[in-house]
Design brief:
The chain has 210 residues and is α+β, with helices and mostly antiparallel strands. Helix content is 46%, strand content 8%. Strands 2-1-3-4 form a four-stranded mixed sheet, covered by helices on one side. Helix 6 crosses helix 7. The longest helix is centred in the middle third of the chain and has 23 residues, at 94-116. The model has no long low-confidence stretch (mean pLDDT 94).
């Protein structure tokens, strides 16, 4: 596959960081279009033509634009089945896999953001995640059932969750309980995390190291 068949619009300090890790885990060729979010390039007309939301990540695969972090994960893992990072349609784990992919975007992220911003709790009948405590307890219970979110099989869902939990616990937005810490350590031990970090190093602003 030629590198220009997959283009990732990317900055290491954005949600596209996890997509780069997934691409490394898939072992496919891709090209990076660096979007300097500190300089506001996500609002440049050239990028808004790709994603009018002005948000990363954005992916172009064989000319088709895919945005939204979870959608990109599902798309890429399905597009390259040889890597075995997604249960196929018909696999009994396909439903649970999609459940936890959707749970990340529909429940985890909104709950963490609302809590971090100290927003008043929503009525459970209108909240997409119920309440923070129920959300995190549901996640912890699932992670306590095995090494990975689907048990003993690492999938793209783990790269999504491992990246998100590493970031949110690192900034103190989510408590790094023993269950979460052990899960993060298992997932981020995958070689793709180290490869992506090495590739991202030249893109990290110098001020990040000062």
């Amino acid at each position: 596959m030629a590198a220009n068949d997959i283009v990732l619009y990317h900055h290491p300090w954005s949600r596209s960081a996890g997509v780069r890790i997934l691409l490394e885990a898939l072992g496919v060729a891709y090209r990076i279009e660096h979007v300097d979010i500190q300089a506001g390039q996500q609002r440049d007309p050239a990028f808004l033509a790709v994603n009018p939301m002005g948000k990363l990540p954005a992916l172009v695969h064989d000319g088709a634009v895919v945005t939204e972090q979870v959608a990109i994960f599902i798309h890429l893992a399905d597009a390259f089945p040889a890597a075995a990072l997604a249960p196929a349609i018909g696999d009994p784990l396909r439903g649970p896999y999609l459940r936890w992919m959707a749970f990340y975007g529909a429940a985890f992220e909104p709950a963490v953001v609302d809590r971090a911003k100290q927003r008043p709790p929503l009525d459970r009948s209108t909240s997409p995640y119920g309440d923070y405590e129920s959300m995190i307890a549901t996640l912890a219970a699932q992670l306590g059932r095995g090494d990975y979110i689907l048990g003993d099989r690492l999938t793209a869902a783990d790269i999504l969750w491992g990246t998100g939990l590493r970031w949110t616990t690192g900034f103190g937005l989510v408590e790094a309980t023993p269950v979460l810490r052990a899960y993060i350590d298992r997932v981020t031990a995958h070689p793709a995390f180290a490869r992506a970090a090495e590739l991202d190093a030249p893109l990290v602003p110098a001020t990040a190291e000062e």
